[in-house]
Amino acid sequence: MMSEALRFDPVKYKETTREQWQEAAGAWHRWGPTLEAWLGEATEVMLDMAGVGPGSRVLDVAAGAGGQTIVAARRVGPDGYVLATDISSNILEFAAESARQAGLTNVETRVMDGEGLEGLEEGSFDAVISRVGLIYFPDQQKALAGMRRALKPGGKIAAIVYSTPESNKFFSIPVSIIRRRAQLPPPLPGQPGPFSLGTPGTLEKVFESAGLIDVHSQVLAAPLRLPSAAECIRFERESFGALHQMLSGLDDAQREAAWSEIERELQSFEGPDGFEGPCELVIGSGARK
User: Fold this and answer.
1) Domain 10-164+189-224+278-287 class?
2) Is 8 a residue whose pLDDT tops 90?
3) Judging by DSSP bridges, how do beta strands 280-287 and 270-271 pair with one another?
């Protein structure tokens, strides 16, 4: 019988995730320029694969502070519409403010659980997008079922996920060090996390299991470039909720020791032009029949 320590509690996980994004919302917004420089190319590919263009109605699930929401809103133009949803009300306030500052009147925000999209009118969107969000849903099939229901026939879902730990050492090194220091067990099969959809073929199988057709994927190198490893540590400490969740069982001194070890390891990615953390993304898409 599985011990209590190993049993994954999706309800508790979701509550903790909401709390942490409520707290990290400001930091995630402040790091917006870094996020867009890092994820900008992948975002354009995702929108291309979702068929987002002038006049499109787009649902953005787990939108965060809305960097990709803004890119989508500019693409769809005044005749289009983007609904940005997230589990965190605080982070959506930043998304709404960014849209206002950009002069965009075609963006709406709504606090919604990505696994609870039933309140949306069926068949009301041309495209659904999710940028590094689907990986953190405890029930990915439930989330995809809601996304699929919201699509018009022929509409597409597109998502960006991380590939394998080996190809994402900017993130997997901190994860492995924290996991060891916090004495955390390996993730259980099907447990949400940064690399839960990264194995080759996994995202495609998940899409097909959700009843999507014309499933495609593309792998894209997306190195995280910053002035130094220390700046990468600052970025991750301030805004990576998954790492904070893993660190929650350590005291302050133990957390500092973990971050010091992480920085020493990440310094191997510093060069004459600064820090370049290895990152590889998978962008997948599929259509509703």
Assistant:
1) alpha beta
2) no
3) unpaired
